[in-house]
Amino acid sequence: MSGGVLVPRGVAAADVAAGQAQPEVHPGGAVREAFLAAIGGLRLDRAEALHVRACGHLVIFALAAPPILLLVTQARTLRLGRRDWSPGSFAVMAVINRTPDSFFDQGATREFGAALGAVGRAVAAGADIVDIGGVKAGPGDDVDTAEEVRRVVGLVTAVRDRHPDVVISVDTWRAEVGDAVAIAGADLLNDAWGGADPGLAEVAAAHRIGLVCSHAGGLAPRTGPHRPGYADVTAAVLEYVTAEAGRAVAAGVRPDAILIDPAHDFGKNTWHSLEVTRRLDELAGTGWPVLVAVSNKDFIGETLGLGVGERAEGTIAALAISAWLGARVFRVHDVPAARRALTAITELRRGWPD
Questions:
Q1: Which of 98, 127, 190, 305 has the smallest count of CB within 10 Å of its CB?
Q2: Is 78-348 in CATH node 3.20.20.20?
Q3: Of 75, 92, 6, which is closest to residue 287 (Cα–Cα)?
Q4: Can you tell me the distance from the alpha carbon of 1 to that of 56, in angstroms, rounded to the nearest whole number?
Q5: For 288, which DSSP code?
Q6: pLDDT of 207-239, one tens digit each?
């Protein structure tokens, strides 16, 4: 079930569509029990009008007497590099870190050759996207812009040459790094820090490449949360990422190349990350493609009482729930396991009503 947009009495739907009037936006939780009486321009008998089982619909209807359904908009097709993903299809994003202190692999792919080899194995195993990072997300040794560029640009160039069809993402919050990797051939800028550098969207727009809009709870890059609190964490995430997506569009980023990411564990404790996962359909209901990066995260480890190397089953459980609730891109360490899980989800969903 997803959220809805109500066009208030006396406001023309055309004005809302043209951006000349503001609708009332109701996230999924606010209209969760409402019932979709009809679609496709049919008259409705009731003003409570939303119950969409498939993820990714946005329903706009008028508060009239009787109300009229004005528009039903399907989830967006995602277009990155040479690849397109229609609603309902899944993409696997492989993690490739050129860092000596990555929380999961502890620097296994820090060297150029090791990283390039890992890309080849990931693509062979079914990765659609490779996400190249040059800076550990968490606290650690300082990595300046020049060092980050040194770590990632050469690898982007080599991957573009060897794997022309794979989508190349770079995990960075810095506009200067984004510009360098875009010139080298990157297709997507994966900003896990919630727009800390507003110039990153301008870079994505200038190069006509994609952008991930995430929620980090207002944290500065590479800092950890200290007793984060939200009245409603999912509502906070929903409001922030959709606003960031809107700002990206205003900056000129292609709408079909924007993803939103709740950013599990970024500015969130374990309960927050679990709650966002339970209600991921509300993010999918915006129509923006949702990326989730749950692989081996601390919220899984704390839930199960397990260390970093023991979280494989928890990762697949969180991934499967996220996929069922409408997530479309999955950032993972274990590409074969993720691909198999998503294939199973695809088969289970066959016949599920759109």
A1: 305
A2: yes
A3: 75
A4: 9
A5: S
A6: 999 999 999 998 889 887 778 999 999 999 999
